[in-house]
């Protein structure tokens, strides 16, 4: 039987996600609260139950925008998602429910953000990859495993006197992140979104900032899930480039994660051929294809809502020139629909 998630069932849902081999941080029930509070989008968190046991879950978010289209996504604002199921019956039931909902809502498409192909009959975006690597229990072995040129960048940051600090709020994260994404020509999320993430996920959400002589250089928000660490939102101020602030920052996340007992470093999603793609490869990570599989509903082809689309180039160029306070004010109005 398919049911919609109620707050009283969130713990059961999360227990299922934690036990599932392909369960990810982005399948957790708390994302429903985060998305509703931060962006106001409708969510549909379905689970399949047999004999009183959950045997499948599917988080869905409906993002409808005049500028960026109308989609039902698992999961919006997340790099992974899709159906988790213990058996074929549960999988097919949840897929059928999602397809029916997509048609009832009249969306352009239904998107499943899978790490592994799950819907071979659907087209998928050959655009994104993820970077994941197992960590050694020895901190120095992890440092030595970084390719020589990238390791030299990390050591340069150490030599420059950079230090990492764990922040108890998102203020410095937002300063560094908003400047970084403005420089890339991308609208920034609201500061409230980051506050909500920190509040809702608690100890599983950590902000690490890098300082040089007391000045902020870079900052990153990381998620902890099972035995994995996922640095998710990060950026640096102008001085980060010369001081190798980002290189040092990600090393510090890795070092601290090893000390916490983490076994996997998930560097997250990148578009093929971009700067972040090359940066992660320089760390010795190998790209793994992501299967963002699309069930076309009203759309005739996969929507191209991404910065590589030529029609967005003039907007991106103009956005890069905005004063930072203006981008922080305008950005959230656009970013809330870029899920």
TrEMBL record:
It comes from the Bacteria. InterPro entries: Acyl_CoA_acyltransferase, BioF2-like_GNAT_dom, PEP-CTERM_FemAB-rel, PG_Glycine_Bridge_Synth. Pfam families: Acetyltransf_6. PANTHER family: LIPID II:GLYCINE GLYCYLTRANSFERASE. This is Peptidoglycan bridge formation protein FemAB. It comes from Methylomonas koyamae.
């Amino acid at each position: 039987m398919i049911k919609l998630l109620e707050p009283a069932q969130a713990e059961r849902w999360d227990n299922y996600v934690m036990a599932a081999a392909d369960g990810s941080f982005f399948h957790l029930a708390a994302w429903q609260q985060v998305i509703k509070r931060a962006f106001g989008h409708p969510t549909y968190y379905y689970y399949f139950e047999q004999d009183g046991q959950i045997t499948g879950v599917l988080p869905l978010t409906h993002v409808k925008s005049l500028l960026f289209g109308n989609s039902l996504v698992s999961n919006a604002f997340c790099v992974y998602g899709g159906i988790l199921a213990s058996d074929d019956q549960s999988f097919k039931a949840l897929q059928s429910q999602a397809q029916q909902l997509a048609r009832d809502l009249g969306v352009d498409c239904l998107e499943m953000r899978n790490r592994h192909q799950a819907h071979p009959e659907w087209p998928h975006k050959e655009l994104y990859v993820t970077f994941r690597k197992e960590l050694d229990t020895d901190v120095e072995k992890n440092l030595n495993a970084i390719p020589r040129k990238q390791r030299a960048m990390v050591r340069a940051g150490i030599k420059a006197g950079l230090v990492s600090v764990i922040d108890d709020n998102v203020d410095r994260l937002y300063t560094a992140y908003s400047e970084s994404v403005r420089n890339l020509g991308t609208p920034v999320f609201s500061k409230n979104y980051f506050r909500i993430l920190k509040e809702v996920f608690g100890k599983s959400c950590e902000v690490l900032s890098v300082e040089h002589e007391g000045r902020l250089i870079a900052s990153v928000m990381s998620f902890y899930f099972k035995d994995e660490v996922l640095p998710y939102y990060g950026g640096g101020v102008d001085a980060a480039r010369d001081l190798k602030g980002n290189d040092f920052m990600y090393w510090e996340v890795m070092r601290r994660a090893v000390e916490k007992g983490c076994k996997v470093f998930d560097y997250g999603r990148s578009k093929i051929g971009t700067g972040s793609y090359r940066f992660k490869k320089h760390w010795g990570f190998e790209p793994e294809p992501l299967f963002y599989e699309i069930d076309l509903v009203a759309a005739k082809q996969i929507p191209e809502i991404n910065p590589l689309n030529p029609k967005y180039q003039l907007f991106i160029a103009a956005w890069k020139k905005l004063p930072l306070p203006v981008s922080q004010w305008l950005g959230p109005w656009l970013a809330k629909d870029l899920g």
